[in-house]
Amino acid sequence: MQGQSFLRGVFSEGDGTPSFARVACIPTILTACCSILFLVFKNHAAPDALILGAYAVFAVAPYGTNKVVAAFGVVKAPGLEGKS
User: Fold this and answer.
1) pTM score, two decimals?
2) 73 confidence band (pLDDT: 50, 70, 90)
3) pLDDT at residue number 80
4) Which residues contact 21 (CB under 8 A, 6 or more apart)?
5) Mapped to the 3 state alphabet, what secondary structure does the chain carry?
6) 37-40: which pairs have CB atoms within 8 A and are 24 or more residues apart?
7) Cα Rg for the chain, rounded, in angstroms?
């Protein structure tokens, strides 16, 4: 039971709501890791720091986007107040 509550906490926000961004990071992180491993085995050397940084940004992009949107709140276009 403790492991199940841990996983539920990992994949949800602080208030308990599920977080798609955290789940979406799993495939992007796996893709980035596999791509880096491919480059290492193909070139027999580690990629440059710029390439590693680009993969890091790609891997956490869903979570970062979610946090940026949450920081700014709901953005409404001017003149649309009260219209549905």
Assistant:
1) 0.66
2) confident
3) 52
4) 62, 63, 65, 66, 67
5) CHHHHHHHHHCECCCCCECHHHHHHHHHHHHHHHHHHHHHHHHCCCCCHHHHHHHHHHHHHHHHHHHHHHHHCCCCCCCCCCCC
6) none
7) 18
